[in-house]
Amino acid sequence: MADVAYIPGEPGRIRRPLVGYAMVISAALLFAVNGTVSKVVLSSGLSSLELTQVRATGAFVGFALALLLTRRASLRVRLRELPYLVVFGIAGVAFVQWLYFVSIQRLPIGIALLLEYLAPIGIALYARTFLHEPVRRRIWLALALALVGLAFVVEVWSGLALDGIGVAAALSAAVAYAIYVLMAEHAVKQRDPASLLAYGFLFAALFWAVVRPPWHFPGGRVNDDVSLLGHLSSWSAPVWLLLLFVVVGGTMVTFLLVTAALRHISATRVGIVAMLEPVAASVVAFLWLGESFGPAQLVGGSIVLAGIVLAQTAR
């Protein structure tokens, strides 16, 4: 029973850390595949904003339909909740996706992810400074190890000339990701993860609908076939099928796993374990797109794993 604990002040709810870690690891692996699939979709001519709109609107429709059919009562919302949900949907859900797509269009995906995964440091600092939660020294060491490992994975010493807008987008994505995790950690104490995400994606979709009205969406491209690039360049798939994966596997399942994990492990730990994504993304890019994955990536991946294991020992 060492890995099971009751949550103070929340009778009937039990923390299962191993379940939480399994959820975040699964989400990181799916996010890694989704990154390459999204790159293929973007090569079809859809813009980062259009892909973000599809992702947000599709995820909202999926969550809303699922809850209407299974747990309609969970969609009830109190008036006082709405401002929080609006901020969560725009600052967290909407911007973390769009800024990520902008950054990977202008930067190598590894560099973009390295900058975005400065977010766990921000989460730990916020937890220590504003929530007055104890953050043990080995957590800071774990964060440092993970960042060093990510630097190896993306080979930051290779002397790349970084695009200023891309760097700004990646750093802003780190802030948005930290906001998402921290706000979700607070919200899941009163609301189940699926309904929280339904409202988050609703307000994200409404926000992007105002920024770019739906009738401007190039619907004709959805039926086009697009090359799968890299080692699979001789194969093609319809854009709609790839978008379906992005919405279901790369958004609904992944966001639900991360949000549900916050019921079992802290936001700081979620952020650290999620650092597996850049490592897994490099492996996927190697196997699918033929991008390099050499000794530096292997060393970096091992260092990231060491940091994650170290974080787990800091009870």
End-to-end distance = 15 Å
Number of helices: 12
- Range of helix content: 55-70%
Mean pLDDT: 84
User: What's the arrangement of strands in the largest beta sheet?
Assistant: 1-2
Rg, rounded, reads: 19 Å
The ordered H/E elements are: EEHHHHHHHHEEHHHH
What sort of overall outline do the alpha carbons produce when their principal axes are compared?
A: globular
Strand content: under 5%
Please outline the major beta sheet: 2 strands, antiparallel
- SSE-based structural type: mainly alpha
Whole-number total of structural domains: 1
Work out the number of β strands: 4
Quaternary status of these chains? Answer: single chain
Poorly predicted runs of 5 or more residues: 6-12
How would you summarize this macromolecular structure in one to three sentences?
By secondary structure, this protein is mainly alpha-helical. Helices cover 69% and strands 3% of the residues.
Core attributes:
two-stranded antiparallel ribbon, 3% strand, 315 residues, single chain, mainly alpha
